[in-house]
């Protein structure tokens, strides 16, 4: 087919029979009907494709097979592009044009935009709302009982108008005809008899007016029935009220008169009046006070303490109450003059003098003897402070030749003797309510100097309440320093001079609360004391671990401080800023210090007990504890081991059979006569203890108890056999045949316990075995073939789940590519639309500006023309 495109088009139309002129007449009409429009359009599309072969694309197949139909081989990109443009014009372009318009219709039907509701639920919800709206906003409610009825009767349930108040008169001749007329003519005959002849024509459809008339009649019929029922109830109620007096007369009839009835009615009226008055005077419930904040509670506590202190001072000074003072008692409680039968507890003296409850012969300042003794004590204390006080100096670490020890705040104990700490008679003064916050141990000792020991925790509590952080800015720093003061005070009262261990537990709660509020500052105070203890231990070891004068083992104050750490801080943490250094220091004491006296063994046993408290939850193994307990058994009890080499296991006991430790063994006479008791730490740690043999026996029993407790604690450790077996061998080697029955039974119970634990541990152990592996197959290099297709690695994966996952990934990838492609086309389409809109705006603006410019130019030309005419007129006038 050669020639131009027009020639090709004519030839194609001619071959398709589309350019033939239809014949005239009926034949033309018949042939035009035969030519279907769809076929005509199909032929035109074929001609169009043939004229432009580049509109159709073909995909070349790698392996073409004849007769096989594959989708997507041919495509029409121009047609697809045009279809996409049309679709975007219908969607994106429409949305773009409606963007920012407020006149769009919003579908606010109930449930229309809720995908969770089914169509049935939507219909039900809409019906419910419609009925509610009708019941609330209807102008006329047919079910309202206050509406008037038709002739006082409801016609809703009436089949006809018989008995509805519309009956005919008796003097009428044709009653049936008139009734039929009323039925059919007046009310439309809406209730015909059902037994009409079926051969008649079907009943006509009722109009809206007739239906509404029927509904109104039924509604009024219901209302009439309710009115009749109400009338009957009212009549029955009135009849009962009328007969009530007769019934009451029969019940209370006495002698034929109604005096009793009248009296009863009068009493009932009186009781009724009394009940009404009681209800009026009944106290109604009041709202409770709101929960107060921490700042408000602290302020109230401080205010209460200050008021109590002012009252105490007035009582002490014997002052009268001022009527203007808030703290003054009411006038109703004023003291009265003494009577004849008074107990002399609250009378007012006749001469008007008031001693503030101190009794006759005493003034407000107390007895003169007491004041004198107090002055002497103060002088003595000041003399001691000047002569024998020692500060918390750290010393020079380089000056090791002098070996000066850095004492803990226990050195403050040398300032006061044990007698000066005894509480004085404060019955006349009472305990103050306000105290300053001490910044050092000396200030705190001066505060509690005259306070009984049992009231020291109360003093601390009042100091904390008066200096709550919310009351002043600097109170926070005062309470932080109070933590260090309490630590120094604990060290002071547990020093070798004071030895007041009973006062430490009441102070622990306050120290715990301060440490919880200020953990960092509190930890700093504790760690500083631990560093000082470590420094003293280093100096003592450098002086000589076996030297009697070397300060190696911790004293009572150091032991009380370590016990305080176990009460204040968490000991089960893996790493703790206070407990971890304390644990290392305690291990150093047990592992490095040498036993020289009974007090050293007591200190070591106390440290072992502290380790039990420390590791009660974490159950960490401490090797120094079993070693020291085993050594303590060898030091205290007689045994069969003669040399150090004969000791079982790997027990490290450098002081075995030393001269200082030989005197620590319990004598046979003591084993036969003495009974074990609870050991006293204060008595055992005394440099010169009394009843030494009893203390030795008590410590031996304590060691046996600790052996059992640690054996139970370490039963879950993998190496418990190696830990418990040396201890069991030592227990079996003890010679306690001559001991009392209590001690022998305790020893036998511990031996049985360790034997049982070791037996169970050995039964649970399994010998080591090589790690079992799955047999590794020999590698094969035979290629894998699939008869179905050569792309088995991609399509025919033997693993079904993996094949499904690969398929999903492929589908996701294809969908993602398609989505990106569509988004790009949408963006391109919108860019073209916006560009056209901008061009239209620019063109409109340019036309507007051109019109304005032309108008201005015209005006300017007219103005110049007018100026020229004026100038010309002036010139003409000048010439004349």
Summarize this entry quickly.
The protein is 56% helix and 1% strand.
Tell me about this structure:
Residues 31-41, 119-133, 202-211, 222-240, 281-309, 328-339, 833-850, 860-872 have a biased composition (Basic and acidic residues). This is Nop14-like protein. It holds the Pfam family Nop14. Keywords: Nucleus, Ribosome biogenesis, rRNA processing. With 880 residues, the chain is mainly α. Among the domains are: 5-56, no CATH class; 141-168 and 178-189 and 208-235, no CATH class; 305-317 and 417-537 and 552-593, no CATH class; 594-765, no CATH class. Helices cover 56% and strands 1% of the residues. It has 28 helices and 4 strands. The strands form 2 sheets. A two-stranded antiparallel ribbon has the order 1-2. It has a two-stranded parallel sheet with strand order 3-4. Residues 144-148, 155-175, 185-200 and 328-428 have low confidence and may be disordered.
Task: Furnish the topology, listing elements before pairings.
Layout lengths: L4 H12 L9 H9 L2 H15 L5 E2 L15 E2 L1 H14 L1 H6 L21 H19 L37 H12 L21 H44 L7 H23 L12 H24 L18 E2 L9 E2 L19 H21 L52 H7 L8 H11 L8 H19 L10 H14 L1 H25 L12 H13 L10 H14 L5 H17 L9 H13 L22 H4 L5 H6 L7 H4 L7 H22 L6 H13 L8 H24 L27 H4 L4 H80 L1
Parallel strand pairs: 3-4
Antiparallel strand pairs: 1-2
């Amino acid at each position: 087919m050669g020639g131009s495109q027009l020639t090709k088009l004519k030839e194609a139309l001619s071959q398709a029979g589309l350019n033939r002129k239809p014949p005239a007449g009926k034949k033309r009409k018949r042939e035009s009907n035969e030519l279907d429009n769809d076929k005509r359009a199909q032929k035109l599309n074929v001609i169009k494709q043939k004229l432009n072969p580049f509109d159709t694309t073909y995909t070349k197949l790698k392996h073409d097979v004849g007769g096989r139909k594959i989708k997507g081989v041919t495509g029409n990109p121009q047609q697809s592009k045009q279809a996409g443009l049309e679709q975007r014009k219908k969607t994106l372009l429409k949305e773009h044009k409606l963007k920012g318009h407020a006149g769009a219709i919003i579908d606010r039907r109930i449930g229309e935009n809720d995908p969770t509701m089914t169509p049935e639920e939507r219909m039900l919800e809409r019906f419910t709302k419609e009925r509610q709206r009708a019941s609330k906003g209807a102008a006329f409610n047919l079910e309202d009982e206050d509406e008037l009825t038709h002739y006082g009767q409801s016609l809703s349930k009436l089949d006809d108008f018989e008995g509805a108040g519309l009956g005919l008169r008796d003097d009428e001749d044709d009653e049936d005809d008139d009734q039929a007329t009323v039925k059919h003519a007046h009310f439309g005959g809406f209730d015909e008899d059902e037994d009409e002849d079926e051969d008649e024509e079907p009943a006509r459809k009722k109009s809206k007016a007739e239906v509404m008339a029927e509904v109104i009649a039924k509604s009024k019929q219901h209302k009439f029935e309710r009115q009749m029922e109400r009338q009957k109830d009212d009549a029955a109620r009135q009849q009962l009220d009328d007969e009530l007096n007769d019934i009451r007369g029969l019940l209370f009839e006495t002698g034929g008169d109604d005096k009793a009835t009248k009296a009863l009615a009068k009493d009932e009226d009186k009781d009724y009046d009394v009940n009404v008055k009681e209800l009026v005077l009944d106290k109604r419930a009041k709202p409770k006070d709101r929960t107060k904040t921490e700042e408000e509670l602290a302020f109230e506590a401080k205010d209460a303490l200050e008021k109590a202190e002012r009252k105490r001072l007035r009582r002490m000074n014997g002052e009268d109450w001022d009527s203007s003072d808030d703290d003054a008692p009411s006038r109703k409680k004023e003291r009265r003059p003494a009577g004849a039968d008074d107990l002399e507890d609250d009378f007012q003296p006749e001469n008007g003098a008031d001693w503030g409850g101190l009794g006759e012969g005493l003034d407000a300042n107390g007895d003169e003897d007491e004041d004198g003794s107090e002055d002497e004590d103060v002088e003595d204390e000041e003399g001691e402070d000047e002569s024998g006080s020692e500060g918390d100096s750290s010393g020079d670490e380089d000056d090791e030749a002098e070996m000066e020890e850095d004492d803990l705040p226990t050195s403050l104990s040398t300032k006061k003797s044990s007698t000066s700490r005894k509480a004085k008679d404060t019955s006349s003064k009472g305990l103050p309510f306000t105290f300053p916050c001490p910044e050092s141990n000396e200030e705190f000792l001066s505060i509690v100097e005259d306070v009984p020991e049992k009231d020291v925790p109360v003093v601390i509590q009042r100091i904390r309440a008066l200096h709550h952080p919310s009351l002043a800015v600097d109170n926070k720093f005062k309470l932080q320093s109070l933590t260090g003061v309490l630590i120094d005070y604990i060290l002071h009262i547990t020093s070798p001079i004071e030895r007041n261990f009973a006062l430490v537990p009441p102070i622990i709660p306050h120290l715990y609360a301060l440490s919880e509020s200020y953990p960092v500052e509190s930890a700093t105070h504790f760690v500083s004391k631990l560093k000082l203890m470590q420094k003293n231990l280093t100096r003592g070891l450098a002086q000589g671990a076996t030297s009697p004068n070397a300060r190696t083992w911790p004293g009572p104050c150091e032991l009380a401080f370590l016990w305080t750490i176990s009460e204040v801080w968490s000991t089960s943490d893996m790493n703790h800023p206070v407990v971890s250094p304390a644990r290392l220091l305690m291990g150093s004491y047990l592992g490095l210090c040498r036993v020289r006296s009974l007090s050293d063994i007591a200190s070591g046993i106390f440290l072992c007990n502290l380790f039990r408290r420390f590791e009660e939850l974490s159950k960490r193994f401490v090797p120094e504890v079993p070693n020291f307990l085993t050594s303590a058994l060898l030091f205290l009890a007689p045994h069969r081991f003669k040399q150090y080499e004969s000791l079982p296991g790997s027990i490290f006991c450098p002081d075995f059979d030393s001269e200082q430790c030989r005197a620590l063994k319990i004598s046979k006479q003591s084993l036969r006569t003495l009974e074990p008791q609870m050991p006293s730490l204060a008595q055992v740690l005394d440099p010169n203890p009394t009843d030494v043999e009893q203390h030795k026996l008590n410590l031996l029993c304590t060691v046996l108890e600790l052996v059992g407790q640690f054996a139970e604690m370490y039963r879950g450790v993998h190496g418990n056999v190696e830990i418990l077996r040396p201890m069991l061998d030592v227990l079996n080697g003890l010679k306690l045949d001559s001991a009392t029955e209590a001690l022998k039974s305790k020893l036998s119970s511990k031996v049985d316990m360790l034997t049982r634990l070791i037996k169970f541990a050995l039964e649970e152990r399994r010998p080591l075995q090589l790690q079992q592996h799955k047999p590794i197959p020999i590698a094969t290099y035979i290629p894998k073939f699939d008869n179905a297709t050569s792309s088995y690695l991609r399509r025919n994966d033997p693993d079904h789940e993996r094949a499904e996952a690969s398929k999903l990934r492929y589908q996701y990838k294809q969908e993602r590519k398609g989505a990106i492609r569509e988004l790009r086309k949408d963006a391109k389409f919108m860019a073209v639309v916006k560009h056209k809109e901008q061009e239209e705006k620019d063109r409109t603006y340019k036309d507007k500006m051109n019109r304005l410019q032309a108008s201005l130019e015209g005006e300017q030309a007219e103005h110049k023309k007018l100026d020229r005419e004026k100038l010309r007129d002036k010139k003409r006038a000048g010439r004349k």
